Amino acid sequence: MREQVNGAGSQAERAYLALRDRIVALELTPGSPVREDVLTAELDVGRTPFREAVKRLERESMIAIYPRRGSFVTEVNITDHGLIADVRLQLEGHGARRAAERSTAAERAELAELRALVDRSGNARAPVMDLDARVHRTLYRCTHNPYLRAMLDEHYNLALRIWCLFFERLSDVSEHVAEHSALLDAVVQGDAGKADRLAVAHVRHFEAAIRAAL
């Protein structure tokens, strides 16, 4: 799930990505305090960029800030999963459609490389989730719409945290990841309608798998 910042990157962006990934992977557990003194030292960032990152994550519902109490990782409310899936059903299909329509030749080559990785993926938690995140975030970038990309990223991160929470209880992880093969093929081939349908089916399958695990 780790995402690199292009070039040196800003401290705020670096802090945001690091905190986001720790929250999604449950390394910062739901309900736990976001300890500024500890985390700024670990991430080697200043307090101002760290607080910018925290505010950004608050807007994305991953951190809650309470006056005079501090900042805390939000709880995972499983009843929200259906609401998140409802939004993703609208966003993911549209995003895949735009990626198929707008991706450049270089981006399609990148997607083809990811498709090859999907075909070789196994069931181990960390590499599977890293690959899933790479596929989704690359597709979002290929939409060439920063507003759509931001919305896709935000709701994917919330869903990914739920996946982390239930990973060991899911029986079809390899099948879920394998669904990316056909989706990536459709985007690379520029088949927008097929990409849209496959992305929606992928979200429906994930939502059903989580419900079955409850």
TrEMBL record:
Domain HTH gntR-type: 9-76
Lineage start: Bacteria, Bacillati, Actinomycetota, Actinomycetes, Pseudonocardiales
PANTHER family: GNTR FAMILY REGULATORY PROTEIN, TRANSCRIPTIONAL REGULATOR, GNTR FAMILY
InterPro entries the record matches: GntR_C, TF_FadR/GntR_C, Tscrpt_reg_HTH_GntR, WH-like_DNA-bd_sf, WH_DNA-bd_sf
Spans through the membrane: none
Designated name of the protein: FCD domain-containing protein
Keywords: DNA-binding, Transcription, Transcription regulation
GO molecular function, one term: DNA-binding transcription factor activity
Domain of life: Bacteria
